[in-house]
């Protein structure tokens, strides 16, 4: 639909002799920000965003509010629009702007507008131009209605959208119910100046969510300061966190400001908080309780204006019961706890994440754009990512580099899992599954090899009846078909029930 509308806009621009044209579809006339759909004509792609921002919002707003076509010889001299900054800045002369409306109950607002600006002949738009633009807008109306239906269905299919509107979470990819739960909790915590404890397995995006909480909260203009509590030795951790006065220790030759001071009026993110040493735990507890702290060597407390967000992949409650972590600090930290799910708990996000990581890798390394093939996406979804999103990101980045180096437009399964060697067609199946170590393979490769051999053995036992093999392995039938494709499993030639060449699984 988008290419069609772009060509249609080019046609009406040519017919009317306009210099620039613009079509905008809006979901809510009162909403701010970029509309869900727009297309422009008469500018280069790199200038679209800038030119769109420069279009006269006054003219478009008038057409949307009144539901009538706006036509003016010169917006610069028209008392309705000359006070508008964009009109003056862009020297807007002749304008015609027609609303896009469908037959609906009286009072229903337009779905959008067709906007034409300035004429090549330095002349006004005529009444004939008005009739043509209004006819054009009437023909666009059913397509605009269909576009809005598509956007509404997309919103309904993404349970994260209501919470994304309250957060600056564009960098968080996914639309699974598990992610929606995380974002719903983040939307509650972000505007409050309270301590948040992020938990969950390593590689699930705790640092990323901490940034979202900071950027979506009242301290967004302040600094975001991160300290990994496991990255520093105990002797340096306290001074790194709270600072030190000259002579407080052997390396403190001058006053040293700590991370708490650096995060003033902003957010202090303490990653791997479970690794914090007992002496530093006591000082952090004091900071959370009194909002004051003592730099090393100081006799007077320093007032702290920071919000603390902590993260850990350790069970702090269990650590507190073992006396390895202060119980009072644990309860101070988890005022609003948020648990990030493992990738296995949000499998419907894996393909979206893989595509996102592929695009990011191409952008970061200046590679030609490559995309994941259907087989690669199936393989990614079927794999077990014990390292969660971090492991997936590294695997996809390496695959994109391999694919670009080979000059191919798509990332294939072989690029993602180069250690996997599918059984050649016609080769006899392994008689049994061995439990011997898979020497020379990574954990990921060994796991996939074992899964492939287990599935092949079940298929051979069941005469390659995928449904029966799936039941035997306690798998969903659709997931079993996906695994067959992901692992590149094929049946030996000459089997009694061998599928016809080119046949697809039901």
TrEMBL record:
Keywords: ATP-binding, DNA-binding, Nucleotide-binding, Transcription, Transcription regulation. The keyword ATP-binding applies. It comes from the Bacteria. The keyword Nucleotide-binding applies. InterPro entries: AAA+_ATPase (IPR003593), AAA_lid_NorR (IPR058031), GAF (IPR003018), GAF-like_dom_sf (IPR029016), Homeodomain-like_sf (IPR009057), HTH_Fis (IPR002197), P-loop_NTPase (IPR027417), Sigma_54_int (IPR002078). Residues 172-401 form the Sigma-54 factor interaction domain. One of its GO terms (biological process) is regulation of DNA-templated transcription. One of its GO terms (molecular function) is ATP binding. It holds the Pfam family AAA_lid_14. Coiled coil: none annotated. This is Acetoacetate metabolism regulatory protein AtoC. The lineage of its organism: Bacteria, Pseudomonadati, Myxococcota, Polyangia, Polyangiales.
